[in-house]
Predict the 3D structure of the following.
Amino acid sequence: MIGTLALVLFVTLLAVGTLLAGVKHYRYDGAGANVVATLCFGWLLGWVTGPLLIGDDSTLRMDYFKLLPIPARKLAYAMLGAAFADVSLAFSLIAFAALIGLGAQSGAAAALTGVAAVLLNLALAVVASQVATAVFGPVISSRRGRDFTAMLLALLITLLSLASSLVPFVAARLTDGHSPALADVVRILPSGWGAVAVDAASRADWGLTAASLGGLAALIAVLVLAWPPLLARRLTMSGRGSRRRARARQHAPHHGHVLPATPLGAVLGRELRLYSRSVLRSMLLMISFLVGVVVAIVLAVSGKMTGLPFSGLMFTLIAAACFTNCYGDDGTSLWLTLVVPGAARADVRGRVWAWFLVVAPAGLLLTLVLTAVSGQTWAWPWVLAAEPALVIGCAGLLALVGAWSVNGPAPDGGPSPARVLKTHLALVAIPVVVLFPAAALLIPGALAHSLLLRWLAVPVAIAWAGFLTWYSTQAAVRRLESHGPEIFTRVRSAAA
Amino acid sequence: MDGHDKPALEFDGLFKRFGDHVAVDHIDLKVPAGSFFGLVGPNGAGKTTALSMAVGLLRPDGGAVRIFGHDVWADPVAAKALIGVLPDGLALPDRLTGREILRYLGLLRGLPRDVVEQRADELLTVLELDDAETTAVVDYSTGMKKKITLATALLHSPRLLLLDEPFEAVDPVSAATIRKILQDFVAAGGSVIFSSHVMALIERLCDHLAVLAGGKVVASGALDDVRGAQSLDDAFVHIVGGRSDNAKGLSWLASLSRCGPRSRGGRRPARG
């Protein structure tokens, strides 16, 4: 209840804020239209993506009408009409009223144009939202689709919170007239056509006014015409994809063939697919990336460049710490490995290679690019010793830690306290274990101003990491071979 | 051929304890090669525990399990190469599609790629999973999950199948398909051991069975020897010591209305 109230309050504030942005007077000519066009884009984007991200929980579900003897076309338009009975339209009405406010600053004709633009924008919002749901609804109703949208939502929220520091910057660019490209983009998008019409009306450019409003009306008409066949497709299709598509895929070449047809290739294929499809794994990778990189970039934007060369290291380290529970996180599917004779070796080596292939290119590239961009030349021996050592050394170490310490999920399905503790410990322990030979050369080298010592750290660190990963992989294989059933019992009792 | 005269599966004094609870209590059992063998017993009898020890998923506290003479725990590579396993209630890498799982397992077992592709095609078609080609296993129904797990058990053409509740939550059409596959497998010389609660199914499919209760084998042998002249249902209740007078304790159940609020006034509801 409090959550709903807070949401209503938040959306009301957003709507009123949008309205005020339209009423406000700007120094630069046309800045108001730019701002209103940008804000309308935000609202329309919300209409199109909202049902997809939050889930289509409309009161009138399409599925209710599947079995009724109503002609498809009639049903389609009835559903579209029903979609206009939506409380959220009230908020959008307040927000889009910014167009009337914008017009009212220049006279009655522009204000009237604003009224027409508001109505067209509202219609576009509802129709586009329905069409988007019909197009993407079947895709997102599968688990893989839901995983994807959950990821997208998490990414969006994180990026929005990070980007909030950029809002003043963007707002300044839009209103000072120094960034015509940005202004052009927000005006060319359909969400900006209403603002363009009002702006044109204020300059008595009636041709552009008519074209903009006419364009909006035409777009709505096209979407309305496209709607019945889309709805018909959705009603006759299960959430699992059409049969025709299934058949087509069956004979398509399999991209797994890039990998060797060996037990190691099999595990590698499984792991690489799980990295891209498992919501837990993608989420962990995303967290590693955002915390490691975006934070450093946001700092760099505000002038603090010292951290930039090390953000690749942060990404690698967090990605390593997050994946120290590989067997615990994969749950009881470990039985498949245990019933196949001699599969333990391939399983461990496949996991080691897969983590390396997923993390190393990104980590190395980030380190090289960001160190170069930062201009911190003193950092080169440090990052060139540390980053390759981390991606090589951690790959094997993860498998060993994962095979020795198995944490099942907590009863609520989330990570257990022990797993969280292990991740935090790993954040401290991994750099100590992997990087101490490098540090033993880099720190004295820096103190003694010896370039030789600092650059010597690079081969020493890589050689140590290579040994570490080779030894850890062997030890993890032995552990899985000797204690496979015990590891399995741990994940099974956690799952039960 | 290696192990042909040996039992397909042999439990030799098999023992497992969880804390104070003895789950499997020194079981001795021989499953003849070429038999269709049913493992029945009430809930908690130790069926899943025994099968888990037989396939290498749970380490026994004592005794031995042999598959065609190969000790599962002393010589796991030879023993595991001969078996196909369908466990109950365990996960698969469920973000993969059915075909991807079969492809993964086939290559993991060292089969050539073309053999894997051909067998995966046939298994998906026979088990009617070919329409779900693009569906990840996480979106499968329970019955479909059983079928894809059965496909993983069959993929490498094992000599013995160990199946824990293979027919649970499977629709009748799929059940008929699975029955046919298993019957053909046995007819071709394979051996099947499966656990089930459904006596009618055991009676219909199996030539041998064992009854487990309280972690012990309380009866085993050829189907006709175990059930005698009665139905397997009756024989089972008799063997595991079910008390037919158990239901008498619920005499109030048939006369609930007497306890209803209206009966407090002394008026008894009219009866039939």
Remarks:
- Residues 172-187 of chain B form the longest helix (16 residues).
- Chain B touches chain A at residues 55-59, 76-81, 83, 85, 87, 90-96, 100, 103-110, 112-113, 116, 130-136, 138-139, 152 (CB under 8 Å).
- The mean pLDDT of chain B is 86.
- The first strand of chain B starts at residue 9 and ends at 18.
